[in-house]
Amino acid sequence: xxxxxxxxxxxxxxxxxxxxxxxxxxxxxxxxxxxxxxxxxxxxxxxxxxxxxxxxxxxxxxxxxxxxxxxxxxxxxxxxxxxxxxxxxxxxxxxxxxxxxxxxxxxxxxxxxxxxxxxxxxxxxxxxxxxxxxxxxxxxxxxxxxxxxxxxxxxxxxxxxxxxxxxxxxxxxxxxxxxx
Length: 180
Known about the structure:
This protein is an all-alpha fold. It has two domains: 11-59, no CATH class; 63-168, AhpD-like (Up-down Bundle). 66% of the residues lie in helices and 0% in strands. The mean pLDDT is 95. One of its GO terms (molecular function) is peroxiredoxin activity. It comes from Mycolicibacterium aurum. This is Carboxymuconolactone decarboxylase. Residues 44-122 form the Carboxymuconolactone decarboxylase-like domain. InterPro entries: AhpD-like (IPR029032), CMD-like (IPR003779).
């Protein structure tokens, strides 16, 4: 672990201000917030700015929750980001992804044309930093312009987040120390 979660006794007004309006008061503590947020709040201004953007993608996006989670899980897999994968498998199931869908994400396969295009978009952005014309055309057959934009930013945001998680050494919440 390169950047440790902020200990509970150091959660001050700056941390609370960074999270206020974004998280309910009962979640603004190291145990309820989880390892990622507890690590990010070491830089309160960055945390607030990032979470505002991330929360748009989670709660204000024009994408369905299912498509968002399909993309996020593929990002997590390609980035080898255990924290992101573990966190989003449950969210993906809640959003309607089946075990078969999740297995397909792991294999880079999907039976549905739109799902295949989303997985291709993630793979292409991961590899080439651009979505190919063929994939863009396939996505455009199903998604409106704002949805396409939300998809690209979702992939980019969660890729950046995976890089940060992996670089900081954020451990999955299943490893959360109850004494923290």
